[in-house]
Amino acid sequence: MTNSSCCARCSSGPRHRLAFRKPTSRIKVGQNEYTALRPFLPEQAESSVAAATTPAARLVLALAAVHAAQVAQIADLVLDDVDLGNRRLTIAGRARPLDDLTLKLLTDRLGHRRCRWPDTANLHLLINNQTANTTSRAGNHRISAPMRSQDAALERLRVDRQLEEAGPRP
């Protein structure tokens, strides 16, 4: 090894001469413009309902719109979280009463699940072909896929429900 290079593979002189960028150089600093949330128009809600064509998609739509559940919370639901006899559903550790619509959608989904995967050991409420043979939950991306292209996406439905529970809008 010669004095002019730092290693046998490097011929760039005594140092590697690496240039580092500032990791924050592309972050824009300034005021973030927030838009006011507006209530859904009837046609936006109808298009989201029409996009939910499977029992799982209809249940996910109801859980976001009626119970203000996040996609990750919906994906984490297991069969023990559903108490049909007492009409209760536990979402993220909080028990909620089941309304008639959610109860019907839950029983439809459970019937579909029982017919489609009768011998599965997976205890998650929402399973698919990939997770039916495992014990893992379905991914957030797959659960929210039917609503992703809609004006009333799941997160917007959830926020709208929270705003409705908070009180009247000005």
Compact description:
This protein is mainly α and 170 residues long. The chain has helices at residues 42-51, 55-67, 71-75, 100-116, 140-144, 154-166, and strands at 82-83, 88-91, 94-97.
Keywords:
single chain; 170 residues; mainly alpha; hpI Integrase, Chain A; 3-stranded antiparallel sheet; 3 strands; 37% helix
Protein architecture, described:
Helix 2 packs antiparallel against helix 4 and helix 2 packs parallel to helix 6. The protein is mainly alpha-helical. A hairpin with a 2-residue loop joins strand 2 and strand 3. The chain has a single domain, classed as hpI Integrase, Chain A (Orthogonal Bundle). The mean pLDDT is 78. It has a three-stranded antiparallel beta sheet with strand order 1-2-3, with no helix packed on it. It is built from six helices and three strands, in the order αααβββααα. The protein is globular. This is Tyr recombinase domain-containing protein. InterPro entries: DNA_brk_join_enz.
For the record, what CATH class applies?
Answer: Mainly Alpha
Oligomer: single chain
DSSP E strands, number: 3
Return the CATH topology.
hpI Integrase, Chain A
